[in-house]
Amino acid sequence: MSVPIISYLLIGLILFCIGLYGCLTKRNAVVVLLCIELMLNAANINLVAFAKFGFFANIAGQIFSLFTITVAAAEAAVGIAILIALYRNRNTVQVDEMDLLKR
Amino acid sequence: MSGQVIAFFVLALLTIGGAVFMISSTRVVHMVVSLAFTFLGIAGLYILLEAEFVGMTQVLVYSGAISILMLFGIMLTRHDAMDVMVRAGWTKQLLRLAIVVFFIIVGFTLYRAPWDGAPVAFSEQNNVKEIGIQMFTHYMIPFELVSVLLLVALVGSIILAKKEADDE
Lengths: 103, 168
Description:
The complex is a heterodimer. By secondary structure, chain A is an all-alpha fold. Chain A is 75% helix and 0% strand. Chain A starts with a helix and ends in a 13-residue tail after the last helix. The model of chain A has no long low-confidence stretch (mean pLDDT 88). In chain B, helix 1 (3-24) packs antiparallel against helix 2 (28-48) and helix 2 packs antiparallel against helix 3 (52-76). Chain B is globular, with a radius of gyration of 21 Å. The longest helix of chain B has 25 residues, at 52-76. Chain B has helices at residues 3-24, 28-48, 52-76, 90-112, 127-137, 140-161. The chains are: A mainly alpha, B mainly alpha. At the A-B interface, helix 1, helix 2 and helix 3 of A face helix 1, helix 2, helix 3, helix 4 and helix 5 of B.
């Protein structure tokens, strides 16, 4: 007996909800970036699960998830770089103090 | 109860437990370490889904690189501060309610959808070989574009994080 697809999809859904909640409530910008990574991982779980269980299941889901991992890594690097530049100029990493465009 | 089901439950517990610990912790470094456990659990789930190459990539990129990058990001900025929730009062309650409603709607839809696709047996062919063949035949142009994207992200993040030269 193998694990049905709905359990993998539910794990992806739970991780997405946790990531969404943390992304909207946390104050530290590094943690917000981490929560975005968590949501991308939830999407990756769905892709790999559909690569095995989907209606037209083939290896393309795994290749898509590889591309997603690459883009997520690039996004994390650029995000951290922006954060460090902002910390050097404004001396803060709290997202509610990043209001340059509001003044 | 087969070994696959037991392994799935252990990995799911590791994954969701790490994420819940991340959301409930107040110290930033604890959050990053618990999320590293979540990434390891997700890698185990990939291997359970017969995607060995994606699982190893997950261990290398997420548990190795991104966790360490986030730790660097915390250590290079102010890291002694506790993380306090940004929203308070009824806004947070409304947000929780909205996320619970989203969870129920999507979960109900997933439950009602007809999943009758039989699992594909990937095990008789080499996963890495299959991914390599597909990657270099059907997905050649996206592969090259992703390499360009990585190069642009590398140069761009160096330029963004570089200390600006003094006026000279």
